[in-house]
Each structure stands twice: as structure tokens, then as C-alpha cells.
Amino acid sequence: MKVNQAEFIISAVGPSQYPEDALPEIALAGRSNVGKSSLINRLISRKNLARTSSQPGKTQTLNYYKINQDLYFVDLPGYGYAKVSKTERERWGKFIENYLLNREPLKLVMQLIDLRHPPSKDDQAMYQWLRHNDLPVLVVATKADKIPKSQWQKHAKIVRETLGMDQGYHPLLFSSEIGLGKDELWAILEEAIDYGKPTSEEENREEEPSS
């Protein structure tokens, strides 16, 4: 996908603030500081549309970014940050859960895992919860540039086995710094949102007999 337009839309704190134009949505889930904002910026070839934070756990809203007129990236609050109170973590958990289970335009959840480290218990719990609820999930292993290329497959295997991914499924290796995985990831996202396929309105127009 060639990105001609990308804009921040809203930091939503509830369903009443979610966009109503029914564009497909791609959610990004992951621990704080796993690189969600950096991934968005690399995908759209912009430096600072999605703002990275030096304070883990700061994002407490669903941040909507509109890409062209084709889809939204929805940056979910990071999980697993110890300095956030238990009550606050539980509130975020319900907030995220309600969005993931009930948001009709949601087409795919990208779960980001730091390739340098084995998935945490929070990572494992999120992945199993997504699978249990039959939500489409793509595991993206970020920060691949931070380890030698010769170690990529070893670390990817650790991610796959720790999460318990089904045979034949692998994390997509990604680096916001060097652009690794960008084209492959876009291809998966385009398929998830049926990008380039005619809408029902266009199909009906094509089927109308000529006079």
C-alpha cells in the first residue's frame, strides 16, 4: 500500500468516541516500550505521527490513526508495566477486552513481542486470550536489528515455542530502524482488510447491464 495520507484522529476512552465510518481497523497490542509507535511510523514512512513515549505505561487510551481512506491503526495501551497500580491495570484490561471482543470493524490484532527476550507471562496470557476468543492475531517480533542476524531464527523459535504457536505459524521479524519486514507486513495487512477488492457497491455497478 502506498501511503499518501496519515493522520492522528483521536485518543478514545470509550466506544462513544470510536470512529463511525466503518473503515477496517488493525489493533496493535504489546508490552510498554515494545515499539508499537515506531512500527506505525515505519509502516507509513513518517517519523513522528505516532509519538513514542519515554515513560512506559503512559498511553491509557485507544489511539486511532487513519491511513489514506483505507484503514485505522489502533494503538492499544501497553500492558505489563509494573509501576501502574493493580486497579488501573484491571481498568485498562476491561477497556481493551471490551474493544477487542465487540468492535465490529476490527480485522486483525498485531501482537508485538520484543525479539531480544522470551515472551513474558503477560505476552503469553495475551496471546492465549486472543486465541481462546478466536480473534485473528499476527505475532510481530520487533527490534530484530538489536541482535545479530545469525541469532534471528533462534530467537524466533523461542518466541514461537514460548507462546505455543501452532505448527506452521511463525512470528514476523520486524525492525523499525532498518525496515525489515515492512513489505511483508503490509502484504498481510492488505489481505486482512481486503485491500484492492471491489466493494459490494462497485460489484453491483459492474453487474448492471449496459443500455
TrEMBL record:
Organism the protein comes from: Paenibacillus sp. SYP-B3998
Pfam families named among the record's database cross-references: MMR_HSR1
Top-level division of the source organism's lineage: Bacteria
Gene Ontology terms, MF aspect: GTP binding; metal ion binding
InterPro entries the UniProt entry points to: G_ENGB_dom (IPR030393), GTP-bd (IPR006073), GTP-bd_ribosome_bio_YsxC (IPR019987), P-loop_NTPase (IPR027417)
Main function: Necessary for normal cell division and for the maintenance of normal septation.
Coiled-coil zones: none
Name assigned to this protein: Probable GTP-binding protein EngB
TM annotation in the entry: none
PANTHER family recorded: ENGB-TYPE G DOMAIN-CONTAINING PROTEIN, MSS1/TRME-RELATED GTP-BINDING PROTEIN
GO CC annotation terms, alphabetical: cytosol
Family indicated by similarity: Belongs to the TRAFAC class TrmE-Era-EngA-EngB-Septin-like GTPase superfamily. EngB GTPase family.
Record SUPFAM superfamilies: P-loop containing nucleoside triphosphate hydrolases
